[in-house]
Specification:
Blueprint (H helix, E strand, L loop, with lengths): L1 E10 L5 E10 L15 E3 L10 E3 L2 H5 L6 E10 L7
Antiparallel strand pairs: 1-2, 2-5, 3-4
Length: 87
């Protein structure tokens, strides 16, 4: 896993602070195999004389993209309460 994070903290006049940051995470190792021969997305069975043909629809994510690597990005905002030390 590779991770990067950057940010800045702004000091406010009240003594508290506000921080703003960005992050990104990426997984170097993946379990993805480009093997789509396992199953079709749509399966149709033979109809009976008095019932329509049953149709099964599979998830495209489970069929074509199972095991793709992990990646996310985001923005972080935090407010810090900096209480003064009592002596």
């Amino acid at each position: 896993m590779l991770t990067a994070e950057a940010g800045y903290e702004f000091k406010l006049l009240t003594g508290n602070s506000l921080s703003l940051g960005a992050y990104a995470n990426y997984s170097v190792y993946t379990l993805y195999r480009n093997d789509t021969s396992a199953e079709s997305l749509v399966g149709v069975k033979n109809p009976e004389w008095n019932t329509p043909a049953p149709v099964n629809v599979l998830s495209a994510t489970d069929t074509y993209a199972k095991g793709i690597g992990y990646f996310d990005v985001g923005v972080k905002v935090a407010y810090h309460f900096n209480f003064p030390k009592l002596r």
